[in-house]
Each structure stands twice: as structure tokens, then as C-alpha cells.
Specification:
Mean pLDDT: 91
Order of helices and strands: HEHEHEEEEEEHEHEHEEEEEEEEEH
Number of domains: 2
Helix content: 25-40%
Structural class: alpha/beta
Largest sheet: 7 strands, mixed
CATH class of the largest domain: Alpha Beta
CATH architecture of the largest domain: 3-Layer(bba) Sandwich
Number of helices: 7
Distance between the termini: 77 Å
CATH topology of the largest domain: FAD/NAD(P)-binding domain
């Protein structure tokens, strides 16, 4: 009996209606939080989720108060249930294009379905573009990590390597040195400057020059880093700063394109998530690549509140105009009736 109920709920939730107050592209922490705020404000809202969260490889979400260590999939499952509990729709699918006509956006999915919405919240996140080093991608989210706040506690005290991929790699190494006395900086794509070398030395971080050729794996664990000259440097974990590539190409027809960011690219926005295109808000990693789950969720909720306020302002303006029109009509009717009586 319970199995039948679950199937019915999912079927209804996956139906895409013709129109909503707000369409949310992306069903991660930011998108679901925005949808939750909107649904609780009695707005009709649909979350369109491609099912490819950035943190899918991680075993747990960390630094999120009251939910520390929760598996990413479980967090999203709870979020979807909460949105649906307030009448919001959560639809599986990928947004392929967005067009604007008059005061509505037409949102088209890759499978051909479409819907219309008065406002659009984009929370599609980003893709981490990793260095093309054999063995690295397979360990991503396990013993190849990027954020000391997301993964640092789990690898504290271990032999940690930091792979230089850009200007922020030295800063990354300094942060990880707070968590271990054994940190090695692999210059790989970027040798540290004189000042940076002094900072690394002051923190006891060893610098190894040369290209990294591959990662050595033993017993389903990272064993070390193999250099192009054949040297093997034993490491338990490796920190990497990937390039952030946003998943928002469908916004280009609206005139909204990604801009450069220190770690890759992002969609610029004002505080509250308002983008340069009227009616479009952005939240989470698509606009802030460094946002963790907690801050992405907060940004999504903040954007949802701003969207609701924007809709209220629009509806109030329309109500004022309609009221003035009715008052004018009553005045004209009264004047006509008065003139008729006088004649």
C-alpha cells in the first residue's frame, strides 16, 4: 500500500504545468531553498532538476549546521520533499533554452517539454574542470579534494599534497597547512613567486618542482604522486583547485553570459541574486563558485524572498492602476448620468 502512495506522489510531482509564477533551473541546495521560500509565500513554483549535483562524489556535506556529514543525496531528497509539501513541483529534466515574450519566460527542456513563468531563478551550479592527470578524476571527492572547510577535517594530520593549477593554489596550500604538518606543494603548472615561496617555507611546506604525470593508487587509496621524471612522492591526499565552468549556456539568448572569475567563470549578480536581465535571478555556485552548501542554500532563500517581493511590487502596481481605472470609469459614468438628468 505504501509503495503505491509513493509512486503516485512522484508521478504528480513530475508533471510540468503550463505556467508558474517562478521556474527554478537547478535542484541543488540553492534552487530548492529558493523554491521553498517561494512556495511558502503561496507562489506557484517548479524546480527543474537535471540530477547532476556538483558534490555528488562527496560522501557527506560538511559545515552545514545541524546537517553536518549528511550524504548529499539525502539532503536533496529532504529538500525536494519539503518543497513538494508546500505545493511546489520538482521536475526531472534539463533546461535547454529560455526565451522571453512580453512578460513571460518560456522555459524549454531537453526532452521537448516546456512551461512559462513570470520570473526565473537559475541555480544550475557549475562543473569542476579537473587537470587531465591519470588517476585524478577517479579519486575526486575521496582523497582528491579541493576545499579545506569541506574535507579538511577528514584528512587532518595526513600527508597532503597540493597541486598548483593557478594563482590561488598557494593560498590553498597555506590553508591546508593548518590541518597537517606534512604538506607538499607540487608546482606543476605554476611555480610560486619569491614572496610566495617565503610564505610556504615559513609554514613548513615543501615545494617540489616538475610536472605531475599521474597519481599512484594502491588498494583503492591514493599512495602518491608520480612526477614526469619518474619520482614518486608518497601522499595520502591531494588538494586541487579545479576551474569552475558554469552550467548556464541557455541564458545566452537573453543576453546573459558568463564572466571571468578568479577560479573560472560565473554569472554576475547584485546582492539578492538579481542579474543584469530583468526577471532573472541567480543563486549558488552559478554566481558564487566558492559558495559551500550552507551559503548556497542561504543565497537561494534570499533570492526567493527577493523574487517574491518583486512580484508583490508588480502586482501592487497593477492593482493601483486597475483601481485608478475603476475610479475613472465610475467618475465618467456618474458624470454621464448627471448630464442626462440635467438635460
Amino acid at each position: 500500500m505504501s509503495r503505491t502512495v509513493v509512486v503516485e506522489v512522484v508521478t504528480v510531482a513530475d508533471q510540468l504545468k503550463d505556467g508558474y509564477d517562478v521556474a527554478v533551473a537547478g535542484g541543488g541546495a540553492a534552487g530548492l531553498s529558493g523554491a521553498l521560500m517561494l512556495a511558502r509565500s503561496l507562489r506557484s513554483v517548479a524546480v527543474i532538476d537535471a540530477g547532476a549535483p556538483r558534490n555528488a562524489a562527496a560522501t557527506g556535506v560538511h559545515g552545514f549546521l545541524s546537517r553536518d556529514g549528511i550524504p548529499p543525496a539525502e539532503l536533496l531528497e529532504r529538500g525536494r520533499a519539503e518543497v513538494r509539501g508546500y505545493g511546489g513541483h520538482v521536475v526531472s529534466g534539463e533546461v535547454s533554452s529560455v526565451a522571453r515574450a512580453d512578460d513571460r519566460f518560456t522555459v524549454t527542456l531537453a526532452d521537448g517539454r516546456s512551461t512559462r513563468a513570470r520570473r526565473l531563478l537559475v541555480a544550475t551550479g557549475l562543473v569542476d574542470e579537473l587537470p587531465d592527470i591519470p588517476g585524478l578524476r577517479a579519486r575526486w571527492g575521496r582523497d582528491v579534494v579541493h576545499c579545506p572547510y569541506c574535507h579538511g577535517w577528514e584528512i587532518r594530520g595526513q600527508a597532503i599534497g597540493v597541486l598548483a593549477t593557478g594563482p590561488l593554489s598557494v593560498h590553498q596550500a597555506l590553508l591546508f597547512s593548518q590541518l597537517s604538518d606534512d604538506v607538499t606543494f607540487f608546482s606543476h603548472a605554476m611555480a610560486p613567486s619569491g614572496e610566495q615561496a617565503g610564505e610556504l617555507a615559513a609554514r613548513g611546506i615543501r615545494v617540489i618542482a616538475g610536472q605531475v604525470a599521474a597519481l599512484e593508487i594502491a588498494g583503492d587509496r591514493l599512495a602518491g604522486v608520480r612526477l614526469s621524471d619518474g619520482r614518486l612522492v608518497g601522499r595520502d591526499a591531494l588538494a586541487v583547485s579545479p576551474r569552475a565552468a558554469v552550467r548556464a549556456g541557455f541564458l545566452a539568448p537573453l543576453g546573459l553570459a558568463a564572466a571571468a572569475h578568479p577560479v573560472g567563470e560565473h554569472i554576475p549578480s547584485e546582492p539578492g541574486g538579481r542579474s543584469a536581465v530583468p526577471g532573472v535571478w541567480v543563486a549558488g555556485n552559478v554566481t558564487d563558485p566558492a559558495a559551500q552548501v550552507g551559503s548556497a542554500a542561504a543565497a537561494g532563500a534570499f533570492a526567493g524572498a527577493h523574487i517574491n517581493a518583486d512580484l508583490v511590487a508588480e502586482e501592487t502596481s497593477q492593482a493601483v492602476a486597475a483601481s485608478a481605472l475603476r475610479a475613472s470609469w465610475r467618475h465618467d459614468t456618474s458624470a454621464t448620468a448627471s448630464a442626462g438628468r440635467e438635460s
